[in-house]
Amino acid sequence: MPVGIPKVPFQGPEEEEASWVDLYNRLYRQRSIFLGERLDTTMGNQIVGLITYLNIEDSTTDIDFFINSPGGGIRPGVSVYDMMGGVEADVQTICIGTAASMACFLLLGGEPTKRIAYPHARVMMHQPIADLTVSTSGLSYFMELSETVMLYYKCIKTYAQRTRKPTWLIHKDMLRDTFMTPEEAQAHGIIDQIGMD
Fold first, then answer.
1. Active-site entry in 120, 126, 171, 188
2. For residue 8, what are the β-bridge partners?
3. Spatial contact of 126 and 101, defined as CB atoms under 8 Å apart
């Protein structure tokens, strides 16, 4: 029998009795957000919505963004990244497994000094991949490719600004899959701290 999503008790500040809520709902109430799958438009919109809601609810308390993802689309990734920087609350990013591709970009997007990877985490950066499906043809194909190239160079510029590494080095690292230990990611400027062992 599948376990499903466990239910846990939660008592809000103005509630007399605890109610049973699913685990993720409870964690959201503690200002914890999770990216534990490939980032697509739907998941990106959900994360943007959660960040927005938590910021409206309390803009003075940090939001913890836990990442264990193989990456995903450049457009949803950039929208989440922009929202992370566009709210008053600090967004602390925490790599708890793998932060690859666009997930690495989101890990980088955390509040400086609040970007963490745990000791057994892996961080991987590489160039974005265009989703040029069979239905994309002719002029649409070139427009999509042009848009992806433009976003790619914006990502390189952002990596260079946030890591304080030269653009040529970031470009070189993104030409191939660059896997890093937490120590290497910290030396590269993607994270600031390594979590407890």
1. 126
2. 21
3. yes
Cα atoms in the Cβ-side hemisphere of radius 13 Å centred on 104: 30
Neighbours of 137 (CB within 10 A): 10
Tokens of 66: 């836990």
Active site residue 126: yes
**In the beta sheet, which residues pair with residue 92?**
64
| In the chain, where the domains are located | 1-30, 31-128+137-194
Write the pLDDT tens digit of every residue in 55-83. 999 999 999 999 999 999 888 999 999 99
Looking at CATH, the fold of the domain delimited by 31-128+137-194 is given as 2-enoyl-CoA Hydratase; Chain A, domain 1 (3.90.226)
Global confidence as pTM: 0.88
DSSP state of 27: H
Q: Which residues pair with 116 in a beta bridge?
A: 94, 193
77 contacts 125 by C-beta, under 8 angstroms: no
Q: Nearest-CA neighbor of 91 among 122, 125, 59?
A: 59
